Amino acid sequence: MANAAGGAPRAAETAERRRRLVDAAVELAKQGGYEAVQMRDVANRADVALATLYRQYPSKDQLLLAALADRTATLRDILARRPSAGATPVARVIGVIEQASRALTRDPRLAGAMVTALGSPEPDAAAIKQEILELLRGILEDAGGFAAVDDADAALRTLGYVWFAALGAWSSGMIDDEQMLTDLSEAARLLLTGAR
């Protein structure tokens, strides 16, 4: 029984420590992008021992991916309260994509850092990438645009790839916010309706 009683405070402390670490990484990324997120600086800002940081998040990429997962979960919660208001399923999916993309582009350095982490080849980051993908899948499925698609799984996956590529092009300065939204909207339309 003593273990059960002690487990809840310990779990709450761990969750609070993780929150501080992610928040510290987000603030550093907002200030200076991917390169500004140095593990020692994150630990200092969060008032956590460096060894503890590495136990929670073994790499900068995993830390930034945790931030992206948090933001994606927040978007899911917002959309659950206020769903995309498009008149058609395709319009609702496009509305979700626009809302998510605009949320990311408000903090370009942070978004660029998270996109860089998302492209990391680090094998240990695969689980959190899968978590982000599943969150996005749920958000897009809830918008309703994939119900009539023959292979919804392939359409969702493909739209995710296009989204990642568009974010990469945007974060590297190849396209601006509006072009990214136009390209994503067009990709969603093509995948969901097969025509312009």
Q: How would you characterize the largest beta sheet? A: none
End-to-end C-alpha gap: 63 Å
The pLDDT mean sits at: 89
Overall geometry: globular
Succession of helices and strands: HHHHHHHHH
Total helical segments: 9
Class computed from helices, strands and strand pairing: mainly alpha
Strand content: under 5%
Q: What is the tally of beta strands? A: 0
Helical content (DSSP H or I, runs of 4+): over 70%
Rg measurement, Å: 18 Å
Structure description:
By secondary structure, the chain is mainly alpha-helical. The protein has nine helices and no strands. It has helices at 2-32, 39-46, 50-56, 60-81, 89-105, 108-118, 126-142, 152-171, 177-193. Helix 4 runs parallel beside helix 7 (126-142) and helix 8 (152-171) runs antiparallel to helix 9 (177-193). It starts with a helix and ends with a helix.
Summarize the model shown.
Helices cover 77% and strands 0% of the residues. It contains nine helices and no strands.
Break the fold down into its secondary structure elements and pairings.
Blueprint: H1 2-32, H2 39-46, H3 50-56, H4 60-81, H5 89-105, H6 108-118, H7 126-142, H8 152-171, H9 177-193
Helix pairs in contact: 1-2, 1-4, 1-6, 2-3, 4-6, 4-7, 5-9, 6-8, 8-9
Primary descriptors:
single chain; mainly alpha; 77% helix; 196 residues; 9 helices
